[in-house]
Automatic annotation (TrEMBL):
Pfam families: GAF_2
Residue ranges occupied by any GAF domain in the UniProt entry: 21-142
Upper lineage: Bacteria, Pseudomonadati, Bacteroidota, Flavobacteriia, Flavobacteriales
UniProt xrefs under InterPro entries: GAF (IPR003018), GAF-like_dom_sf (IPR029016)
Natural source organism: Psychroflexus lacisalsi
Name under which the protein is recorded: GAF domain-containing protein
Signal peptide (UniProt feature, chain positions): none
Length: 154
């Protein structure tokens, strides 16, 4: 497995392939993270669905999920859509407002994605391991979202 720092050039390369549409590039980033980081069992990008107060799944890697649309305020993703802050859940069973995507998920991290200062989406990662995410994961995912944001601003 690669370190998060070692993944940055590969993420940079995937996200900057302007010959591919953004959802294709985001799916490739999801695939890369899901296959190269042991504890990233499901990786997805949700985006605000137009003017609706809901998120829609645009790209992911891992098991298919029924949660392709998430209302603001519901689950960890819906809370991040409202709080505009990173949310790390070490143990999903301790969260009242948790939407289970899979019985195997033990922890989750969600990092908002900002374009021109507006929270327009997020990266969501589920792990089958409790306490899977550290400050390094948050910093890395914030960096990933900053790269995605640059592509969306143009």
């Amino acid at each position: 497995m690669m370190s998060l720092e070692d993944l940055k050039p590969a993420v940079e390369k995937l996200i900057s392939q302007e010959n591919l549409d953004i959802n294709h590039r985001l799916t490739e980033v999801c695939d890369l993270l899901q296959t190269k980081v042991d504890t990233y069992d499901w990786v997805g990008f949700y985006f605000k669905n137009g003017d609706k107060r809901e998120l829609i799944l645009k790209a992911f890697a891992g098991e298919p999920t029924d949660h392709t649309i998430i209302p603001f305020g519901k689950g960890i993703c819906g809370q991040v859509a409202e709080s505009n802050k990173n949310f790390v859940v070490d143990d999903v069973t301790a969260q009242d407002n948790y939407i289970a995507c899979s019985i195997n998920v033990k922890s989750e991290v969600v990092v908002p994605l900002f374009v021109n200062g507006e929270n327009i989406g997020q990266i969501d990662i589920d792990s089958h391991t409790k306490n899977a995410f550290t400050k390094s994961d948050e910093d890395f995912l914030t960096w990933v979202n900053a790269r995605v944001s640059q592509q969306l601003e143009t």
